Structures are given as structure tokens and as C-alpha cells.
């Protein structure tokens, strides 16, 4: 009996990855297996935001009608492992393309190209992808790599048909001559720059950026858009998938794609923006989460700020964007009385302004009182001489 129970608890990895059939839905057992495979950890809780993104990406890819070769969750996980092993090879290298069936020549139309919209027998789905079909076309193979990277590393690379569905995201290009490692380096260029500040100020946080600076914080699922400031719209993108960052950092496998330093810096920038010891930021985030729910990762409001996190020179990947945000915040001016009241960046100016406001208010108040008193005196003087 225990043997049967163990077998029934195993996830069905041969369900279709991109499908509208309810039988192919991403259940809890599949979620646990995917997290354990991608992040090499057994901590599966608090991953609702990531899997909401996962499902939306699969649905977007299905609606975009871009052909892919991978069909099942097992295909996806196998391709992730293959890309890890070949991360230093060009995307068009035989070592990378060896995962797929032999590529079909452009003028060869004898064999139909497999895609996720085709019906496959359960026996076929049990086979490895390379042995499932006699051939596949290059576009489907390339799209499969793009989709896998989007689901795995949350980088918005892929078919141009999906870009119109995410107009706010940047679209990094992964050329055929670039390896996965080269592509990641192009998305996250490290920069060596001297310290321009002694430390990041405590006032540089999400609450002040919105309530004082007038910026709108926009939650993004695309890691490369983290801390991107759009000055025309007054928006700042914040990547919020803390559980994914912790999971990838926890894996620490020798073939990990994203640099550990990038993952750690990203976590610390979130802690800078939403310091859990700051009551205003804590209340602000809880209100945002109550409104957005699983659209954002609740862990974004509970990241420990490490001892070095306020040192600007420690940020090799995100330092320049942090500087840009700080400069825009410092240059912003209050636009209403509420912002004037909350803006304590320049204490002398703040006291001077509110003392001036108080003087004007008292002048108007006493002037009004004096006017009313004068009117009353005239009224009673005019009526005091009249007989009853």
C-alpha cells in the first residue's frame, strides 16, 4: 500500500507545458518538483507569485502562436539542465542544438514540424525530445530555448510576437553567436565606479519615492528591468521575485547561470527600497500587497538588509541605476501640501516653509477675527441708540 501511495504522489511531468486543457494544469506536485529542480531546494512555500508568472508566460506563448518543440514539463526541465551544461557554447553551436531532433532544412517540406499544438501519444511523450520526432525546424528550436530562459531566469527574450503583450518590458537580444553566459553578461554589465557617496541615504526608500518624490513604483517580472527609471512617465521598475532570487542563490551549483553576486545585489536593492525596520515602508508594502495579492511576492517586504548594503561601491551591477534614481529623487520637488509636509530631505527649508505657512495662516486668522470683531462693534453701535 505504501508503494502505491508513493507512486500516486509523483508529479506527472509528461503533462503539456503550453496547453489550455484543464487536465494539463500546473498542480502542487508539479510546482514542488519544478522548484526543487530549478532551485535545488526543498523550501517550496511562498512561490505563488512565481508560478502565476510561469502560467501567464505559457499562456502568452500559446496565444502568440509562436511554434516551439518542447511539449512537456519534463522537456522544459531537461532543456534547463542542457542549457546549464552548455552555457559557454554559442546558441547556434551543435552542442546546444543536440538537445533537439535534427534540424529541418529551410526548403525541406516533406516532414511536418512538431509543435505544441500537435496531438502526441502518451508513448511518444515518454521519449526524450531528440528521439520523439525525425526532425524539427530551426525556428521552433530557437523559440524553445527562448521560452525556457523566460520561465527559468525570467529574462524577456523571445519571439517578437510576445513583445506586444508586454509593451513595458525591455527586449534583450540573444544573437546566434552569443553563448548563454555572454547573453547574461550583456543584460547585466558589471561596472567598476568609484564611490560618489559615503552611503545610500535612509530616505531613499519606496515610501519616500512615492509619497515625497512623486514616483510610481511598478512591479516587474523581468529581472533585467529592475530599477529602470522612466523619467517621462515617472515610474521605477522593481523586480519583486524574492523567492526566485533566494532559490537560485541557494542552489549554488557549479553550472548556475546567473552570478551569485547579481542575485545578492538584487536582494539588497529590494531591502534598501523596502527596509523591514521602517514602519512607513512596512505599512506601505502591506497596503500594496493587500491590493495586488499574488501579483507580487510577499517576501519582497521581508528581506534582511546586510551590513554592507548601504555602501554604494558594493553594487557592481545595480550601482549606476541606483545613482540615477537618487539623482532624480533629489531633483524632485513637492507638488502639493501633502508632499511638502512629508519632504524632510532639507530640514532648514522644511522649517522655513512651514513657519512661513504658519505666519500666513495666523495673519489671515487674526485678520479675519479682527474684521468680524469690527463688524460686530459697528452693528452694536448702530443699534445701541435705538429705543426698544
Could you give a quick summary of the protein structure above?
Helix content is 47%, strand content 3%.
Structure description:
The chain crosses the membrane at residues 350-369. Keywords: Membrane, Transmembrane, Transmembrane helix. With 388 residues, the chain is mainly α. It has helices spanning 2-8, 28-39, 48-64, 73-85, 94-97, 122-126, 138-153, 180-187, 206-211, 242-251, 260-273, 279-292, 319-331, 337-342, 347-384; strands at 216-220, 229-230, 235-239. Residues 1-8 have low confidence and may be disordered. Helix 4 crosses helix 7 (138-153) and helix 10 runs antiparallel to helix 11 (260-273).
Quickly list its features:
388 residues, mainly alpha, three-stranded mixed beta sheet, 15 helices, 3 strands, 3% strand, elongated
Amino acid at each position: 500500500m505504501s508503494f502505491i501511495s508513493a507512486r500516486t504522489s509523483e508529479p506527472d511531468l509528461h503533462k503539456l507545458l503550453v496547453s489550455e486543457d484543464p487536465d494539463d494544469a500546473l498542480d502542487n506536485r508539479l510546482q514542488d518538483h519544478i522548484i526543487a529542480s530549478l532551485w535545488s531546494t526543498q523550501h517550496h512555500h511562498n512561490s505563488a507569485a512565481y508560478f502565476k508568472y510561469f502560467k501567464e508566460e505559457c499562456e502568452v506563448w500559446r496565444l502568440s502562436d509562436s511554434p516551439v518543440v518542447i511539449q512537456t514539463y519534463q522537456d522544459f526541465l531537461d532543456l534547463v539542465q542542457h542549457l546549464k551544461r552548455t552555457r559557454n557554447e554559442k546558441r547556434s553551436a551543435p552542442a546546444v542544438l543536440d538537445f533537439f531532433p535534427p534540424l529541418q532544412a529551410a526548403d525541406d517540406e516533406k516532414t511536418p514540424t512538431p509543435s505544441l499544438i500537435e496531438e502526441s501519444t502518451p508513448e511518444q511523450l515518454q521519449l526524450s525530445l531528440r528521439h520523439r520526432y525525425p526532425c524539427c525546424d530551426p525556428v521552433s528550436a530557437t523559440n524553445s530555448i527562448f521560452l525556457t530562459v523566460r520561465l527559468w531566469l525570467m529574462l524577456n527574450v523571445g519571439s517578437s510576437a510576445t513583445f506586444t503583450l508586454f509593451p513595458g518590458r525591455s527586449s534583450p537580444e540573444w544573437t546566434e553567436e552569443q553563448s548563454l553566459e555572454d547573453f547574461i553578461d550583456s543584460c547585466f554589465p558589471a561596472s567598476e565606479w568609484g564611490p560618489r557617496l559615503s552611503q545610500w541615504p535612509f530616505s531613499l526608500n519606496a515610501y519616500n519615492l512615492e509619497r515625497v518624490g512623486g514616483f510610481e513604483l511598478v512591479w516587474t517580472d523581468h529581472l533585467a528591468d529592475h530599477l529602470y527609471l522612466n523619467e517621462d512617465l515617472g515610474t521605477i521598475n522593481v523586480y519583486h521575485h524574492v523567492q526566485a532570487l533566494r532559490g537560485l542563490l541557494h542552489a549554488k551549483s557549479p553550472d548556475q547561470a546567473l552570478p551569485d553576486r547579481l542575485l545578492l545585489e538584487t536582494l539588497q536593492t529590494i531591502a534598501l527600497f523596502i527596509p523591514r525596520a521602517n514602519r512607513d515602508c512596512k505599512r506601505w508594502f502591506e497596503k500594496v500587497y493587500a491590493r495586488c495579492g499574488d501579483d507580487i511576492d510577499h517576501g519582497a517586504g521581508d528581506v534582511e538588509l546586510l551590513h554592507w548594503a548601504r555602501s554604494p561601491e558594493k553594487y557592481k551591477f545595480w550601482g549606476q541605476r541606483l545613482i540615477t534614481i537618487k539623482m532624480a529623487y533629489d531633483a524632485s520637488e513637492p507638488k502639493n501640501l501633502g508632499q511638502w509636509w512629508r519632504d524632510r530631505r532639507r530640514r532648514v527649508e522644511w522649517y522655513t516653509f512651514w513657519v512661513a505657512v504658519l505666519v500666513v495662516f495666523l495673519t489671515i486668522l487674526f485678520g479675519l477675527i479682527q474684521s468680524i470683531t469690527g463688524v460686530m462693534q459697528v452693528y452694536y453701535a448702530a443699534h445701541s441708540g435705538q429705543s426698544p
